């Protein structure tokens, strides 16, 4: 059973959009979970609910942690999934963030519990965020693939469909569960270069935040992520330059990407539409600029 926070009452959020990220298999380079952490801090998220972890986790695999409170009291933090709420007065909808760890057991019951909360809070749309390891070069824009409940929605959000078939994680299972009960759901997956998979991966996190910005049609606070992404790419390039074998491998990936995924020129209409959306999100600047 989930435990509820009393500060926010069901029905008090405006057509909330639920954004999910799950640590583990679904979160290469911690890119998706870092995205939610950025949103939670930037939007002053308030506790909403958390799932009782007892039936979902193997605590020998995903262990609880101990921390000291004021250097004296020992506090146990149990691994679980937590929901927080963000009120966005300048956006069409408020936001519910779902940040958790991929469960070890009872995935269908886990999804059912999240769906019950989504229904109770009248969630209008679910955005699932994830990141995967891929044969992509760090020097190119981050490839973001995904899926939606229908072709029209996929086109609306510019989702370039993934052709992946094989094992899936809780992110894919929960998206399917949402669609089965009629809640619109779209997912975005950032591709993280497998040769630099350790966290953090700010360039991938930034790419996911841009997708969230597009769907919500509101400015998403990016903090220091743009600078961190540039520094990350520069650092990886410097390390790669010291190893000829790695440098050659990256050049191979760049050439293959140019052949397999050629850049498609944007039309004048699409450029104008995107610029208008950008101006709406960013709003007026001091001095009218």
TrEMBL record:
Gene3D superfamilies: PAC-like subunit. Pfam families: PAC2. Keywords: Ligase. InterPro entries: Proteasome_assmbl_chaperone_2, PSMG2_sf, Rv2714-like. GO terms for molecular function: ligase activity. Signal peptide: none annotated. The keyword Transferase does not apply. This is Carboxylate--amine ligase. It comes from Nakamurella endophytica.
